[in-house]
User: Which sequence fits this backbone?
């Protein structure tokens, strides 16, 4: 494939989704303080990220403060899109079988 053909095949727009709060925190042995998660979200938002994925608190102890963290995310000037990551992952897993 030539460079021009490759460039034409690319989508005109992409979405970058931050999954650190979903995937990154679950590997940690300790719980990250809520204030630190708020800074994380604020900085991600300032960098232009508008979609964050979370896992329901019942599935991951590190996100026991999900309700508070999501409430904070919704207060940002242009609220980040938020979604639960566990359900979409389960649906994709079912479709791969």
Assistant:
């Amino acid at each position: 494939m030539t460079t021009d053909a490759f460039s034409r095949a690319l989508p005109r727009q992409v979405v970058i989704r931050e999954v650190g709060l979903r995937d990154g925190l679950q590997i940690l042995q300790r719980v990250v303080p809520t204030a630190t998660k708020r800074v994380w979200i604020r900085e991600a938002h300032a960098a232009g990220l508008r979609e964050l994925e979370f896992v329901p608190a019942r599935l991951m102890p590190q996100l026991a403060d999900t309700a508070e963290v999501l409430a904070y995310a919704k207060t940002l000037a242009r609220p980040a899109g938020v979604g639960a990551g566990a359900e979409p992952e389960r649906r994709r897993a079912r479709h791969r079988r």
Remarks:
- The helical segments are 3-9, 20-24, 34-46, 66-73, 86-96.
- The chain has one domain: 14-96.
- Strands lie at 17-18, 51-54, 81-84.
- The first strand starts at residue 17 and ends at 18.
